[in-house]
Amino acid sequence: MAILTPVHWQTVTPQMRDVIDFLGNQDFMQDFYLAGGTALALREGHRISVDLDFFSATIEVTGRTRQDIVQSLSSHRVQVLENVDGNLLLTLKNLRVGFFGYGYPMLATTDSINGVAVASLSDIGLMKLDALISRGSRKDFYDLYVIAQHISLAELLILGQTKYPYTKDFALMAIESLVLFDNADRDLQPQLLIDLTWSEVRAFFIA
Question: Measured between alpha carbons, how far is 71 from 60 in angstroms, rounded to an integer?
Answer without folding.
Answer: 19
